[in-house]
Amino acid sequence: MSSLSYDPDAPQVSHALHAHGLNLDATLAGGQAFCWRREATGHWRGWIDGRPCLVWMHGDALRAVGPGLTRDAVSAYFGLDLPMADILASFPSDAWLDQARAYAPGLRILRQDPWETLCNFICSSLKQITQIEQINHHLRRTFGEKFADDLYTFPTAGRLAQATEQQLRACRLGFRARHLHVAARQIASGEISLARIATLPTPEAREQLMRARGVGEKVANCVLLFAYGRAEAFPIDVWVERVLRRLYFKHNSKAGHDKLRAFAHAHFGPYRGYAQQFLFHWIRTDPNALPPEKPKTAKPRKTTAKKVEAQN
């Protein structure tokens, strides 16, 4: 992302954070958002509330600057208005979760635009974080409105609904292009209302999201957690499934998805989405997080009586 040219009169927002302080690196590079770029200075350039901005830590204060950026928008985006002490206190006594929290104590859950978040996770299937970031960038450059210099807003559902599947494929979506195109038409036509979803109880909101093309339970939970602030949502991807099986189910490969989900809901409590993100970030970025897998021992082959006779 190119450097931003800011209006010198743009309001500068500064916050004093509680507890351990916000960890921008763990939060913005942790697989929640895909519109941010870190500079060598430690500053981050990205988007909040549809506006380009620059954010960085100054001691225990978050500073953010951007054209028309408001204090409320920054506070809501980073969840600075949430009772983090209460959230952390709700966690169970859990040595593994304690290690994950200690690894990145300033990790926070973002509250992003639902449409962009939905698009990002529809495009996430079989993709790494850097690849999803590239898709986000290409969608902006190809279909978004120019904001300034080399900056483009994220395209609306209506704009993507008007695109062709081939045009979307050119943004490195592959087979996901079809999913995104249909989902964009569903949102643009009003068949699915993201605004209405915000008013629904979480189970109903999840059902509505799963009506969108390319959206299963995991993607729906990601949108609920990272856009709508539903802390009870617990996305289970390959990383989280791995940590659940290795640490909590003793490598039990027979534990089905329903059992993993039921365990997470019962064990991690009402703010389990935060627990999920702590565990996800920890095992994804710390190579020493998980104990080594137990080597699989080959079972002795059984020899039938007929085979013995044939050998004799």
Chart the SSEs and their pairings:
Elements: E1 12-16, H1 24-28, E2 37-38, E3 44-48, E4 51-58, E5 61-65, H2 71-78, H3 84-89, H4 95-103, H5 114-122, H6 129-143, E6 146-148, E7 151-152, H7 157-162, H8 165-173, H9 176-188, H10 194-197, H11 202-209, H12 217-226, H13 238-248, H14 257-268, H15 272-285, H16 305-311
Antiparallel strand pairs: 1-5, 2-3, 3-4, 4-5, 6-7
CATH topology of the largest domain: Endonuclease III, domain 1
Order of helices and strands: EHEEEEHHHHHEEHHHHHHHHHH
How does the helix and strand content classify structurally? alpha+beta
Mean pLDDT: 88
Distance between the termini: 73 Å
Low-confidence stretches: 1-6, 15-20, 307-312
- Overall radius of gyration: 22 Å
Number of strands: 7
Number of helical segments with 4 or more residues: 16
Principal-axes geometry comes out as: globular
CATH architecture of the largest domain: Orthogonal Bundle
Proportion of strand residues: 5-15%
The domain count comes to 3
The CATH H-level superfamily of the largest domain is Hypothetical protein, domain 2
Residue share in helix: 40-55%
| Biggest sheet strand line-up | 1-5-4-3-2
